[in-house]
Write a structure and sequence with these properties.
Blueprint (H helix, E strand, L loop, with lengths): L2 E3 L6 E3 L7 H20 L5 H8 L3 H9 L2
Antiparallel strand pairs: 1-2
């Protein structure tokens, strides 16, 4: 393993340069669960609907949708 920075917050960690640290990964999972739960109840919701009803920022929703 090599030292790298978290791709989200920049914290130093062991791992690959494109990976998230434990804290950012946990936050990402929580946001993913929020978006998934909302979309299961509202499958035709827009991105703005997701933002308004989950309290997540547009950037956070986009990261959930686009991060592999």
């Amino acid at each position: 393993m090599q030292l790298s920075n978290c791709s989200n917050c920049g914290k130093l960690q062991l791992g690959h340069s494109l990976s998230l640290c434990k804290d950012c990964f946990k936050t990402h999972l929580e946001r993913t669960h929020q978006v998934k739960a909302f979309l299961q109840k509202n499958p035709r919701a827009s991105v703005m609907d997701i933002c308004q009803h989950t309290g997540l920022s547009l950037r956070a929703v986009n990261e959930v949708v686009t991060r592999p």
